[in-house]
Amino acid sequence: MPPLMKLIFSRLALGAVTLLAVSALMFVGIELLPGDLAQQILGQSATPQTLAAFRADLGLDQPAHLRYLDWLAAAAQGDFGNSMASRRPVADLLSTRLANTMFLACYAAVIAVPVAILLGLLSALWRNSLFDRSVNVGALGAISMPEFFVAYLLVLFLSTRLGWFPTLARIDEAASFGDALYRSFLPALTLILVVIAHMMRMTRAAVINVLAAPYIEMAQLKGVPRWRVIVKHALPNALAPIINVVALNLAYLIVGVVVVEVVFSYPGLGQLLVDAVASRDFPVVQAVGLFFAGTYITLNVLADILSILSNPRLRHAR
Amino acid sequence: MMLKTTTALAAPTRRGFLAGAAAGGMALGLGLNTRARAAEPKKGGTLRVGYTQGSTSDSLDPATYANDFMFATSYAVFSTLVEIAPDGTAQPDLAESYEATPDAHVWTFRLRDDATFSDGKRVAAADVVSSIRHHMGPESKSGIKPLLAQIKDIRADGDNVVIFELEDGNADFPFIFNDYHLTIRQDKDGAIDPESRIGTGGYVIEAFEPGVRIELKRRDDYWKAGRAHFDKVVLLKVGDPAARMNALMTGEVDLIDRPDLKTIHLLKRNRNVKIHTQNGTLHYTMPMQVTAAPFEDVNVRLALKHAIDREAIVQKVLKGFGTVGNDHPIASSMPYYNAELEQHSYDPDKAKHYLSKSGLSSLDVTLYTADAAFNGAVDASVLFSEAAKGAGMNLKVSREPDDGYWSNVWLQKPFCCSYWGGRPTPDLMFSAGYAATADWNDTSWKNERFNQLLAEGRSQLDQGLRAEIYGEMQQLCQTDGGALIPAFGQYVSAMSTKVQTPEQVSEMWDLDSTRFIERWWMA
């Protein structure tokens, strides 16, 4: 499939350019913020001499463009340097947080994606039924509330009132897998409730759209059962938009959950990024930011490839 | 369990008791006080704490400590030469005793000889010298550096004695060594390893994930008698107030700091939770720059000081968790507090009287404010503006952005909102924000008599004379100074009823001046 390979390569090249642009934008953004790392860490107790000592120590007295180029040269070779605030290697800082973030994202995705698609298919199957209406109302209700509010409601009912789940999602090395699933159930459920509506509504709409096509009518006239019409005839042709929405939501599960992390004190990448921005810790901000940007780019490329694969008309260039 | 307690209490040698005046003696005294209430400290249990602050950028380097999480860790794992006792006085801690020359110029600290690091090594004078030097000199980036600038020379005299020579006499010098920056680390070739986890405190670090949690375990060979009661301590960073309060309600943590005052009544519904308040040194100020019109006239300052309804601010903004201020920065829990001063209160007639004395018929001023100054500053400013109307003044409230408030508004605008965390002594407080030469003299107030008294009091070792001096300085601040100080805030925390506190706690800072890990226990 040479056209597909060409597409993948061009997308990857574009992705690399995007990452470069993102890193430059982040650098400028941090430079524009008032105060630097020395001021943030020393706070009210800063005096001109301590600030100067701090800056010289960290190389912050160098001109901005030189600092950026230094960082870029090292990063291109895979060395993301040390955190300026804690002096620990960025790779170390990132690894545990990254594992936590991926754990929570996978946890939520593994439940949310199948459930959303199933609910979408069922509500397309029983369109305008009581089931369809109630699923829609429930999903739209969950998505219209801000995620921290959903989280607080879950804490109030499932934790404070009923005492079934812990309010703090504490994950540490000592916790077993089952333990980790139990402790992070509430944040995962919050995320599930937040992302399900989008995917479920798109599945429903895409399938219903295809259901109006003549070949579906043909299948029905042949006497194919209704669920079979949907799964075998309609779904494959509705996959492209569904895949795109799923990819968008997966990206959100990885990069957009800082509010949920805060409510449950979950040690994920979002909190790391917020801390790093607050202390103007440039290497950490860059590493986390690039990871987030990379996630978006990869998932989008993946979605494009999968939609092409799912559609024979796109697979063969005419 | 009981047996274990008694052995642990008796363990640290007779010397500790004979040292008498030292920390050991104080702890013993406390034990006697609380025995009447049958709440004797008990060993054991795990304390889990939900803390507001804490950041991924935290490190064990004492020069970089910037939040409560690290302050508490610092006091638990390391120790200081001097600690501030619950009664507000300085008491020797790693030091056994200290004394000054009559002019308070040269201070000699004698170290305890039973204090050991967690690796078994004894604390030596060289350790102290290197630990203090870590915060001095051009290379240092420590927050306490300005306070240590008064030290001309530190030297070890033998293995047990450290001598400090100061630029000027300072009778309050020992108080500085309570600071969490100045914990004592091991010396290695004339310097300390700032990241080292080896300390002299009652606990050792089992796991540390910056910005997430720290787990501490009690040292079996801790040298200080009657301290460090919990077996284990876990500090968790829980930044969200609702999450913190929920975790306490469901019993996932035993203690939280800074509960949300707006919803604190909900915590009171839970019978297993108690609220703990301390009359701290934290206070909210509205500095007027006395070099700018119209504040250069003392009558205008006095008029404004009588046009603010302090009681309303305490009730409505602080939700009752505070006390009214009297326009000087010395808290009632601090040494040399002047209780004789007449309380300034809301009195429109008096305000009008002072205003007419200044020759003005009406007053138009702008108060710059933002919640960055303190939580509720905007509300307090609006309340002030409404109360001032009653005194015929037009006080315009200008709300400024939170970002950059400290660099764009504070010290820049002639009348704004601010706050001060406390200092342990009047001298430290006045030197930081009220001395003519202070960088942070945010009122530009340069009262000759006040500054003369400040210098006099600093090197004065006679307690009676010092009380007189600081009493007069508080009065000068109140009647002449540019700072309008409407209220002192209380430190509020909440904990499980199982957590026990001594009858008297140190109120200087939150949670027994952040030494709760070593001083509190589990029922």
Automatic annotation (TrEMBL), chain A:
Keywords: Cell membrane, Membrane, Transmembrane, Transmembrane helix, Transport. The lineage of its organism: Bacteria, Pseudomonadati, Pseudomonadota, Alphaproteobacteria, Rhodobacterales. The chain crosses the membrane at residues 12-30, 102-125, 137-160, 180-200, 238-264, 284-309. It comes from Leisingera daeponensis. Belongs to the binding-protein-dependent transport system permease family. This is ABC transporter permease. CDD domains: TM_PBP2 (cd06261). Pfam families: BPD_transp_1, BPD_transp_1_N. The keyword Cytoplasm does not apply. PANTHER family: DIPEPTIDE TRANSPORT SYSTEM PERMEASE PROTEIN DPPB-RELATED. Residues 98-303 form the ABC transmembrane type-1 domain. It is a multi-pass membrane protein. Its main location: membrane. Gene3D superfamilies: MetI-like. It is found in: Cell membrane.
